[in-house]
């Protein structure tokens, strides 16, 4: 969920089938199982076979095992496959310490975060070891013994890497999250990215925030802040997943939603394209040109150089026409969003140029 903020460009995909990998949670499970095997047999472990949530067994390599206090520990190197996950190649250690009961309890070690805000899968105060990995670790340890253990997970580089993830926005402090509902990393998983967006929204909503702002990315964020439309902590990035996030937000009561971004993305919503990625929607410039020619026949003709991008189209207009058109587009986009959420709450739209300057917006 939260380890995918700095993805590399999908244009650099390898020219072969993409290789899946293992989640942080699966690696922590492998390390815990290896540590447990070493605890029980005093024999070094180099590979473990795990039961995954889908019921299949898979093997993971183990770097080393060692005695640690009254228990044992083991280390696994994460292999995220071909996914551009910033945690690929990190060291993940699980330390097990025997308990006097049969419980398996989890603790955040070095580089593993702690939950501080409501709205996530775990309550505040809990180590950021998600329910999926917890259950996977319990299941696999129970195959070996009924002994209870304290399981402490360490990610030595986790605190530094966490600053490049969604964790600071989600209120997870001190390190990375141990994630993985399935145990398998699917390269370039849109589902994982969208779940991060939903988590961010949910955290803010659970804190009583009812006036929020959706932006595609950094340009929209800069425009919203530069125009003082909203404070930074109320901005939720949605990338290209407008339909998914608008529909998700429609299930919550809000006082107001701002939508701020460049018309090259947002005008696609006018034409029913709610996933604005170029792989899932047509180029915005031809759509906008056709719309302007129909709605504003008084506009001067555009040259071929003016119609390649939405930015070029708008820059070709006079300043007066730029404001008129940008305000019009903002209103059209707002209308589409309001219709989609059935007018459940107020919406305003602001459009910016590539400098991050607001060029048009709605007026409630």
Please tell me about this protein's structure:
- This protein has eleven helices and 16 strands.
- It has 364 residues and is α/β, with parallel strands linked by helices.
- The chain folds into two domains: 176 residues, CbiD-like; 153 residues, no CATH class.
- It has a five-stranded mixed sheet. A five-stranded mixed sheet has the order 13-12-14-15-16. A two-stranded antiparallel ribbon has the order 1-11.
- A hairpin with a 5-residue loop joins strand 15 and strand 16.
- Helix 8 crosses helix 9 and helix 8 crosses helix 11.
- The longest helix has 22 residues.
Task: Give a brief rundown of this model.
By secondary structure, this protein is α/β, with parallel strands linked by helices. Helices cover about 35% and strands about 20% of the residues.
The spatial strand order of the largest sheet comes to 4-5-6-9-7
Amount of helix = 25-40%
Task: Report the total helices.
Answer: 11
CATH-derived architecture of the largest domain: 2-Layer Sandwich
Order of helices and strands: EHEEEEEEEHEHHEEHEHEHEHHHHEE
- Looking at this structure, what is the CATH superfamily of the largest domain? CbiD-like
**Number of structurally distinct domains:** 2
Q: Cα distance, first to last residue?
A: 36 Å
List the SSEs and their pairings.
Elements: E1 21-22, H1 24-41, E2 47-51, E3 57-61, E4 64-68, E5 71-77, E6 91-98, E7 104-108, E8 114-115, H2 131-142, E9 149-154, H3 158-162, H4 167-170, E10 172-173, E11 184-185, H5 190-206, E12 211-215, H6 218-226, E13 235-237, H7 242-249, E14 256-261, H8 263-270, H9 284-295, H10 310-315, H11 319-340, E15 347-352, E16 358-361
Parallel strand pairs: 7-9, 12-13, 12-14, 14-15
Antiparallel strand pairs: 1-11, 2-3, 4-5, 5-6, 6-9, 8-10, 15-16
């Amino acid at each position: 969920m939260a380890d995918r903020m700095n993805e590399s460009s999908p244009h650099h995909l390898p020219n072969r089938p993409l290789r899946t990998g293992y989640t942080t949670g699966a690696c922590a499970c492998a390390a815990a199982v290896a540590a447990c095997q070493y605890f029980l047999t005093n024999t070094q472990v180099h590979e473990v076979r795990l039961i995954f949530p889908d019921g299949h067994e898979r093997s993971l390599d183990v770097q080393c095992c060692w005695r640690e206090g009254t228990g044992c520990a083991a280390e696994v190197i994460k292999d995220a496959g071909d996914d551009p996950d910033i945690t690929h190649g990190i060291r993940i250690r699980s330390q097990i310490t025997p308990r006097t009961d049969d419980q398996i309890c989890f603790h955040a070690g070095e580089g593993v975060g702690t939950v501080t805000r409501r709205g996530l899968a775990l309550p505040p105060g809990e180590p950021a070891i998600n329910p999926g990995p917890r259950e996977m670790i319990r299941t696999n340890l129970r195959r070996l013994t009924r002994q209870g253990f304290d399981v402490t997970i360490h990610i030595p580089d986790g605190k530094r890497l966490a600053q490049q993830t969604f964790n600071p926005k989600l209120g997870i402090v001190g390190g990375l999250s141990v994630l993985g509902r399935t145990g398998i990393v699917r390269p370039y998983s849109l589902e994982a990215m969208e779940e991060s967006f939903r988590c961010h929204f949910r955290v803010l909503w659970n804190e009583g925030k009812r006036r929020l702002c959706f932006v595609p990315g950094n340009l929209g964020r800069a425009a919203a802040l530069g125009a003082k439309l909203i404070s930074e902590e109320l901005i939720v990035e949605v990338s290209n997943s407008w339909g998914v996030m608008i529909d998700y937000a429609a299930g919550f009561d809000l006082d107001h939603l701002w939508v701020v971004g460049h018309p090259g993305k947002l005008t696609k919503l006018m034409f029913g394209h709610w996933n604005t990625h170029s792989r899932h929607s047509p180029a915005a410039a031809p759509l906008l040109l056709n719309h302007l020619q129909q709605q504003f026949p008084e506009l001067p003709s555009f040259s071929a150089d003016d119609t390649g991008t939405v930015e070029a189209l708008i820059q070709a207009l006079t300043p007066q026409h730029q404001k008129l058109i940008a305000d019009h587009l903002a209103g059209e986009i707002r209308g589409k969003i309001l219709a989609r959420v059935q007018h459940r709450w107020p919406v305003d739209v602001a459009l910016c140029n590539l400098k991050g300057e607001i060029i048009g917006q709605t007026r409630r």
